[in-house]
Specification:
Length: about 950
């Protein structure tokens, strides 16, 4: 028996179920909506095959003994007590609940972060959706501020939009406090991000810490002063010294408080300076502290008071540094290369050997880190992947200065780059349940190393390697926007054919993101790179791919859809470049012809005068040439063209077979973004065409695989669309209602987009509400249907089918007949793909129940269309039995429906049979969660 695949978010929910939390508590902990929690719980019940929440809680993983259960990212838990600042704490807490953006401004080392954490904890209860803390220290690219916030909040990308857009949509109706720490280093990214966020999300409040104001609307600046020295030995500054000194050894005697107050005065009340001095109390005593610090402070004396406070921190840092042994000094400055918490093993690799400088023994690095932590120069951070160390940002910047002063900056950064390359290679080769945690632990260092190397010509080759590695890792981590960005960055660092290859990968990621504009742009850019490299065949393939994307994915363009004349120009250019001896170029060109000339995909800009036989013939040629080329992804794309052409020709079973063949073919394709994009599309098409041919079990199987695709974890509307339709036709009301929660939540978070698959999914939910007799809910979902898909598709295609089923259920045969009044040929454009068999069969049944004079002719016409479809054939057989009053034949269709997995129609048949059978039918309907059915128009 296979192990069910549980997404990362489902694993988080399962763990919190093990703590017996309510859905509301889980939602607050994970910073998601209650509806999304409900959907995840339902999905877990299905995947783990357990009956209720109690059973789920027993399946939750056990916490590691001696450690608390893992929590979703929230406020960091400081290892030391917060001391003093009662006035500032109260004023700032009041400000963050009353104002949109509060910036706590102060010098480095004054204590902004600890004050912000304390205030956020105080104010958390005022925000229904909780508090989220984001440390911006590891963020080196101003453009990734939104991505850092999204990662902390558990918000993923949405199709057709970037991560910033997805984040704004997710937070639009939230009431939450966002704490952004250390904004000064990416101020150029923070300011525009906050301006947009606060404008679009009225319930979000932001508490930022920065060394300078952010200069954005809504901002209210709160200057953070040094610790108060008022009261001498009873001051806040002295209280901090006493608390920290006691933590590392003996507490100072009460008689020494006045001298400590004098020391704190000389340190200007700067929290970091006081803490570093207190860390040396147990070994130097007050006399040693006063003497050592006095020398440094005299050296740095003079200047205005604000500068003096800076100098007091610098003096303590210099003094603390000078007290270290030479090896510990080297270690302190060299670990400043890390921007995120690091392990002792990582530190040993980066710091132990620096060419031309004093080496550090690898075995001594761990001891040295411990000594630095004892002196409060490093913080110790326990994690799931082992003990990690981190320097506060002020200390890290100090270490970087010392690194430059020692002439070691380039050498250490090069070592750090090499460590990142090795770490990225290890992540690419290995998997396992902890892969995500291992990637997250080093991701910011990979980004930092890449940013440094990309700006240095001598590191260009390694920068390109790291960009490619980072692209693949980000794709695996489902950070699709970053994956595309890194592939494009790699292309800018590469030359010739390598640049073209990276751009093709980027185009594949854009496909997964449903960004037709980017696919088109990137394939054209790849063609230009290939042309510059002298690869005419490669350029021809890329131009053909751009032309195909313009038509095949025309509905995913977010701005301008390329006009027909522009695309045919690309096709002509591809024809000129393509050689007769390149099967891949020939296959790509044939597919582009099927897309553009024959309009096999039914594009937005497609011509209306293509005949079905010609379109099928063109698509068959593309399939043949793709087979010769031996490229599984190209074969899948060509089969998609053929499937579309066969649907247009009314060959539903052939279309379904072509769609399924794609899945088998892609199983042998190497893992790559383009393959993933094709597989997601193939699963959707396989599920859709299986619905069209009445193979509901197969449709559910493909739909379930689609719903479980990692790349769709954050886009539940697209993930569940065809599973909803299949379950609705089967009459699985509970499953539909459960999945509709995830569908609706994801659709709203995605910005309420339109898609050819979302409209039918929403309409299927409306149908289930109609069959349940909940007409208010049905009306709500019909409104959603109008906003999720094409109104023409709903009016003439799927909507006609679903509406007819509801009307027939409630005994309104004449209205049902009117809903499917047009001949199939009159609405062919809207019914031929999935809905043809259902439309024809329901049209026949409505005619019988309404007493239409052409009922017999409609039955005959429908039978010719639906032959081979188990559900539609049973519908036509039932219509025939109803027309002829043939009870045995009628009851036989009930068995046929059950065998086909269409339990609703089986129950409906028993009700139509009347007599003793009606009670069994009513019971079956009740078991399905559906309303009693009105039987009108026929008496057995």
């Amino acid at each position: 028996m296979s192990t069910p695949v549980i997404s990362a978010r489902e694993a988080d929910v399962l763990e919190l179920l093990g703590e017996h939390l309510s859905n509301a508590e889980i939602a607050a902990r994970l910073f998601i909506s209650v509806r999304t929690v409900e959907s995840h719980v339902s999905s877990l019940l299905r995947k783990l095959e357990v009956p209720d929440r109690r059973a789920l809680s027993r399946r939750a993983p056990e916490p590691v003994r001696g450690e608390p259960a893992r929590r979703a990212p929230a406020l960091p838990a400081p290892l030391t007590a917060f001391v003093g600042r009662a006035r500032e704490r109260g004023e700032l807490a009041a400000a963050v609940t009353a104002r949109r953006l509060v910036t706590a401004v102060g010098l480095g080392g004054v204590g902004k972060t600890r004050l912000a954490l304390a205030v956020a904890a105080d104010a958390a209860g005022e925000f229904a959706d909780g508090v989220c803390f984001v440390d911006l220290v590891p963020v080196t690219d101003p453009g990734r501020v939104g991505a850092a916030v999204a990662a902390a909040m558990g918000v993923g990308e949405q199709p057709g939009r970037g991560i910033d857009d997805a984040l704004v949509a997710a937070l639009a109706d939230r009431q939450a406090l966002l704490v952004l720490d250390n904004c000064e280093q990416v101020r150029d990214g923070v300011a525009p991000f906050l301006e947009r966020l606060l404008t679009a999300c009225p319930g979000i409040r932001v508490l930022a810490t920065s060394r300078a104001r952010l200069m954005v609307p809504f901002e209210w600046v709160f200057p953070v002063p040094p610790l108060s020295r008022v009261g001498g030995g009873g001051s806040e500054a002295v209280a901090l010294f006493l608390e920290r000194a006691a933590a590392v050894g003996r507490a100072p005697a009460p008689a020494e408080r006045d001298r400590i107050a004098a020391l704190c005065e000389r340190l200007d009340g700067m929290a970091l300076a006081i803490e570093l001095a207190a860390a040396r109390w147990s070994t130097l005593g007050l006399d040693g502290l006063a003497a050592g610090l006095g020398d440094q402070l005299r050296i740095l004396a003079g200047g205005p008071r604000a500068d003096g406070r800076h100098r007091s921190v610098r003096a303590v840092l210099d003094w603390s540094h000078d007290l270290l042994e030479p090896q510990d000094r080297a270690l302190l400055r060299r670990v400043s290369a890390f921007v995120a918490p690091f392990t002792a093993e990582a530190a040993a690799e980066v710091t132990a050997e620096v060419a031309g400088f004093a080496p550090l023994e690898a075995v001594a690095v761990a001891d040295g880190l411990g000594r630095l932590a004892e002196q409060s120069l490093l913080a110790v951070t326990p994690s799931d992947t082992g003990t990690r160390y981190q320097a506060l940002e002020t200390l890290r910047q100090y270490g970087t200065e010392r690194l430059a002063d020692a002439g070691e900056l380039d050498a250490v950064r090069s070592r750090h780059l090499a460590w990142c390359l090795a770490g990225a290679a290890g992540l690419q080769e290995g998997g396992g349940p902890d892969w995500r945690a291992r990637f997250d632990a080093v991701a910011e260092d990979l980004r930092s190393a890449l940013a440094w190397a990309a700006g240095r010509p001598e590191q260009r080759t390694d920068a390109c390697r790291l960009a490619l590695s980072m692209a693949g890792l980000a794709f695996t981590r489902n950070l699709l926007g970053e994956a595309q960005q890194r592939y494009e960055q790699a292309a800018s660092l590469a030359a010739g054919a390598d640049a073209a290859a990276a751009l093709r990968q980027a185009a594949g990621v854009a496909g997964c993101r449903r960004l037709g504009d980017d696919m088109y742009r990137l394939h054209r850019a790849a063609a230009e790179a290939a042309r510059r490299a002298g690869d005419a065949s490669g350029a021809a393939r890329d131009l053909a791919a751009a032309a195909t994307a313009a038509y095949r994915f025309s509905s995913t363009f977010t701005s301008r859809v390329p006009p027909a004349d522009e695309v045919t120009g690309l096709l002509a250019a591809a024809r000129e470049l393509a050689g007769d001896d390149d099967p891949a170029a020939g296959a790509a060109f044939a597919l582009a012809e099927a897309a553009v000339v024959a309009d096999a995909f039914g594009a937005v800009q497609g011509a209306a005068d293509n005949t079905a036989p010609d379109t099928v013939a063109c698509a068959e040629r593309a399939v043949e040439l793709a087979g010769r080329a031996g490229d599984p992804v190209a074969r899948s794309a060509a089969l998609d063209a053929l499937s579309g052409a066969q649907s247009w020709a009314g060959e539903s079973f052939a279309a379904a077979a072509a769609a399924r063949a794609r899945i088998d073919i892609l199983a042998s394709a190497p893992s790559a973004p383009a393959r993933t994009h094709e597989l997601i599309d193939a699963l959707a098409m396989a599920a859709a065409t299986a619905v069209g041919t009445g193979e509901l079990s197969a449709a559910r199987r493909w739909g379930s695989r689609l719903a479980d695709q990692p790349q769709l974890a954050e886009v539940g509307d697209h993930a569940t669309s065809w599973l909803l339709v299949a379950d609705a036709f089967a009459g699985r009301a509970d499953a539909v209602l459960t999945s509709s929660v995830r569908f609706l939540d994801a659709w709203e978070q995605a910005g309420r987009q339109r898609s050819f698959s979302l409209g039918p999914a929403a309409a299927s939910v409306a149908m289930i509400h109609g069959l349940r007799g909940d007409h208010e809910a049905r009306a709500t979902w019909l409104t959603i249907t109008d906003r999720t898909g094409s109104k023409e598709d709903h009016h003439h295609g799927h909507g006609a089918v679903f509406d007819a089923m509801v009307l027939l259920h409630h005994g309104n045969a004449h209205a049902a007949l009117e809903r499917v009044a047009p001949e199939p040929e009159q609405v062919w454009k809207w019914v031929c793909w999935v809905w043809l068999h259902w439309y024809a069969a329901l049209r026949a049944e409505a005619a019988v129940l309404a007493g239409h004079p052409d009922a017999r002719a409609r039955i005959a016409a429908a039978r010719a269309v639906v032959a081979g479809n188990p559900v539609a054939t049973a519908l036509v057989d039932r219509a025939q039995a109803l027309l002829g009053g043939d009870l045995p034949r009628l009851l036989a269709t009930a068995a046929a429906f059950e065998a086909a997995g269409c339990h609703y129609q089986g129950a409906r048949t028993l009700l139509l049979a009347g007599g003793a059978h009606a009670a069994a039918g009513a019971s079956a309907l009740a078991d399905l969660g559906l309303a009693p059915m009105a039987v009108r128009g026929w008496t057995p």
